Amino acid sequence: MKTRRFSWIFLPVFAALACTPAHAKEPLRLAASSNWHVDYGADYCRLARQYGEGENIVFAFFDKFGPDEGFRITIAGKPVRTDVLKADAWVQFGPSEAKQPLPFLKGNVGKNAALLFSSDARIAPPSDDELKAIKDKKEGEWIELEPIAAKRYEAIQHLEIGKPLRQTIVLETGPLKRPMESLDKCIDELLTHWGIDVEKHKNLKRSPVPAQNPGRWIYSSDYPMDMLQIGQPALVEFRLSVNEDGKPTACHIQATTRPKEFDDAVCKSLLRRAAFEPALDSDGKPIASYWRSRVRFQIPGI
């Protein structure tokens, strides 16, 4: 089965690539200082591990929100401090996979500085053909990516994060096949709690398809006014329950970086405007399913 992709919903965002000095230092290589831990959340699954010691402790979090190969990375700790508020970081699951740019927001996890990556990653970026298909896709079209073979997860030895950090960090992860399988098991359990038929969803003929461009479901005017006045940005992960008729019946916030006002604004707008062609099972019959994406609120120029 091919990997199902989902679309972003953007409010006005102006991404800027910051100019940073070339790395003069050798990479900071950090060995694991804990085992992998899987957190079974109510609406997401998290794979977490600590690296390094003392002043060089770094925490890595891989969050999954659905049964595809994408996961959201968060890296936290003193070594990831940066003055860059938002840009692209160069990330590589080495030694064999290609480097890929991933957008991030500067943030915090507890008292630790953090890079909050704002789009899903896979261990490998899309191929040239897939990138062309993404570039040429029509409005509302979804692009499916070929799945990544298990042997490529097994071949991973480290995660490297470069620009915009002053010193490249290399986290010695070791093979990721078994940790990712644990994360996938967590997601399968989550689906049952969501009322989803896991086996039927492994062989869907079609996932829910937006009936119009999802970018039109949330407007700039939906930005909470009290947050607008203080220039408060936010990143909100959400999931819509979609019934057999293609109607969204419930909105669930899977993760959010900011106050509840954003969550309320997102769900209110989505339930009012979203519409779908329903999911189809392997026999072509409509089936209750879900659709997920994220919204990024950002004041232009901030």
TrEMBL record:
Residues 1-24 form the signal peptide. Residues 222-298 form the TonB C-terminal domain. Pfam families: TonB_C. GO terms for biological process: transmembrane transport. The keyword Glycosyltransferase does not apply. InterPro entries: TonB_C. The keyword Methyltransferase does not apply. Keywords: Signal. This is TonB C-terminal domain-containing protein.
